[in-house]
Amino acid sequence: MFVRQLRNELWKLFGKKRTYIGFGxxxxxxxxxxxxxxxxxxxxxxxxxxxxxxYVPTEFxxxxxxxxxxxxxxxILLMPLYATLVGGDFVAKESEDGTLRMILCRPISRVRLLWxxxxxxxxxxxxxxxxxxxxxxxxxxxxxxxxxxxxxVPGQAFSAMPAGEGLQRFLFSHLFLAVNASTMVSIAFxxxxxxxxxxxxxIVALSYMFINVVMESIPFFxxxxxxxxxxxxxxxxxxxxxxxxxxxxxxxxxILVATNITAFxxxxxxxxxxxxxx
Amino acid sequence: MTDALIHLTDLRKVFGGRPAVxxxxxxxxxxxxxxxxxxNGAGKSTTIGMMLGQVWPTSGSIRVCGHDVTSNRQKALxxxxxxxxxxxxxxxxxxxxxxxxxxxxxxxxxxxxxxxVVEWVGLTGRIDSKVRTYSHGMRARLALAQALxxxxxxxxxxxPSDGLDPEGIHEMRETILRLHRELGLTIxxxxxxxxxxxxxxxxxxxxxxxHKVFEGRxxxxxxxxxxxxxxxxxxxxxxxxxxxxxxxxxxxxxxxIVLAPGRSTAEVIRLLVASDVAVEGVWQHEQTLEDFYxxxxxxxxxxxxx
Lengths: 278, 306
Prior knowledge:
The complex is a heterodimer of chains A (278) and B (306).
Chain A: H1 2-15, H2 21-39, H3 41-52, H4 57-60, H5 63-89, H6 92-97, H7 99-103, H8 110-143, E1 149-153, E2 157-161, H9 163-192, H10 198-217, H11 229-233, H12 235-238, H13 246-273
Antiparallel strand pairs in A: 1-2
Chain B: E1 4-15, E2 18-29, E3 33-38, H1 44-51, E4 59-64, E5 67-68, H2 73-76, E6 80-83, H3 95-104, H4 111-121, H5 136-148, E7 154-158, H6 166-182, E8 186-191, H7 194-200, E9 203-208, E10 211-217, H8 218-222, E11 227-232, H9 235-244, E12 248-252, E13 256-259, H10 265-274, E14 279-284, H11 289-298
Parallel strand pairs in B: 3-8, 3-9, 6-7, 7-8
Antiparallel strand pairs in B: 1-2, 1-4, 4-5, 9-10, 11-13, 11-14, 12-13
């Protein structure tokens, strides 16, 4: 029965157009960034940086490198927006539309209902990240040759590796990106369980993450970085480091997974005590 | 009451300090079509919400199909179907997919059962179309189909005719009677439409400002034939004469008399004619549910603690 309920939840999720807004936006952004990289000074500046660091630009101006270059701003700017948009809809939109009342005429417990919805949210996060990475690499491959992976994010990651290892790391980093996305979905999901509109749930979740980013960037709070969720979102970049700082990656993943579970529990508690009225 | 499918005891719900339902005791016996009447804000929807475990009661107990809704909601709602005013669905999905989604929350429901219900409500030809293409009447039928999927014993209908045109209201009324007749369902119906309730229900409860102010059989309400309309040249003289002779207990509005127990209109006419009072007409005034309802709601509800 759980599988049937989950399948139906996915039907509901992927049957509506607004679920695809994120996918569409990612595609457009990727095409725009690819064109910008190829046809502006961005590529030549990047080649100069590679050369300055002792690498041969022709080896590392590759589909993998460009895919990572394209991913970074999208993950920072677009992924929170679209993950929270969908997460904020899960309960609040059904409540607003009135379908939640219809569901809660049924002999299903509220916790079970939320559990099914949350799992659907996690699946959505995985699909979103897979689509994002897949299309980024696909588009980059159309315009650039296959080659090594070069990553440089000041203060966070600096590495270069051959194509085979680069592809493995690229794919592996998507597991961590999926955890990031599911955390974003879970936070919005939690707010959506309270008595609020779907847009409000999305905005509150985004605000929470924005406050994290702002506080994290204030020098005074540097020693408290571990308390900011957005700090741990960067662990996907650590996977592209050489060598991988596994203890930091593990610590961040534990915190993100715990955040997911906590968000679900708080949401479930709020939903359990709520009166569902028309 | 042992065979009551809905049994509410001393039920109370307070929203932010404002009581929505107060000290409500109610029994809906098996096999009845039970009407819950009241103005907007009387507490009908809150009561129905509590019956379905959507609204938590502040105090009191709710038993549906023999199970406590607060502590054993799943069991209590196993054989319950419900329809709300202006039924809402996932418009972007087909009628069939909507039924599949909703039935999955009720336990195992086969495709054959869905097809059977779709046929029963007459949606077979359109069940694969997206719900956004449905008319209001078709949505009402789809709502009925989803309510029937778990083979319910009890159907709870909250303003089922809301938003329907006269033809749709008629169709809904006929369907409710058919459900009662053919499937033997117990039906709990809340409505503003007194005419609809009068035609459908066997028993009613009337709520006012969260209090139940009446509960009884519709036939009892209609059979309350106390009032008789009397048309004479001198109403006051005629009623004085009738009261002296013990035939009536009261007169009102310059045209109504209330017969004393055991007295008939024939005796009234005989006395007036014998006393040389010209009688232009005497009619038994059958009380409609509307008369009863409106008279009842003129009385303020009981004040707590008094």
